[in-house]
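The data are passed on as follows:
___
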Amino acid sequence: MRIRTLTAAGMLGALLLPAAADAATKPVFRGPPPKGELTGVKGPAFDSSFYPNRVTIAKGDKVKLSTLGFGDTIFVPKGQKTPAFAVQNPDAPVSGAKDAAGNDMWFNGQPAFAPNPAAIMPQGGTVIDGSKVVGSGLALDGPPKPWVVKFPKAGTFVLRSALQPGVRLTVHVTKARRSSAKADAARVKRQLRANAKLANRLLKSKGPAGAVVKAGNDSKGVATIAFFPAKKTVKAGDTVTFAMSGHSIETHNVAFGPKPYLDEHAKNFFGPVFEPFVTFRSEAPGQAIVFDGANHGNGYVNTGLLDANSVTPLPKSEKVTFSKPGTYSYYCAVHGNDMAGEIVVK
């Protein structure tokens, strides 16, 4: 994650501004203030929650949203779905994809996955009145500038994220009443304590029993970049299910093969189109993934992208059968070496 650093004094000053100084603009942070990181958390976890996650403002007031990590913010009117971050582009079919043995991959000719402009680009202006989609877009070239939006109508408005589903900011707009800066600061402190405690609890998970590995262990906007358990022992012929966390705000894949080969695909993952050797499963749909250490000429096997987001076509889990004894390393090409695991087959 890219983190924009603020001083603790600056954060507290923003939350505790005197009413006369800037009463019409409510400061909100995406990620834990002041630096975007949870304190006292030991392990690969991050928090994409809004701080505070609930504010009350008066009609005509503004919210100033400072993103301390990496993410988007979007308002979608009731009855509409938040756009998926990635979509398949029929105008950009995959071509020329060959495995290490020189054979064509099955996904040649398939529409490539690409970032969705409806999620990644700013849209709708800077006024939220409930009538249309309004989004900040996603900053890809550095820390994003604060996003300031105005709320001219009374009501309750819920802001979300297309990239990281599950995080929510509830804005109550009244005729005149506002939550005080003191109340907002108190809510932030409660959230920081609760989410740090939650992150440590998530990281301590031993993972599911049996032949199941969980990709991430997320809850309430807090994500862990790890596999649970990181090491799983099975018997030859066993099938392991790699499953997303039920409340995941992330997207993962599980890729086996020579590390330089996987690294090259991971390096090219994000672009105008997503790297097909990361996004697509290594075997054609309907064909079981059976790993024997020599797949595709070099042992390459991939589940394809997995997520828990109902608006995408991506599956929540994938199965891999291990046919030969050995110790096999894998990692998530979306997050690189920071998210790795091992299957021991006896």
Summary: Residues 8-73+136-201 form a domain with the Immunoglobulin-like fold (CATH 2.60.40.420). Confidence is low (pLDDT under 50) at residues 1-23. The chain has two domains: 8-73+136-201, 208-345. The radius of gyration is 22 Å.
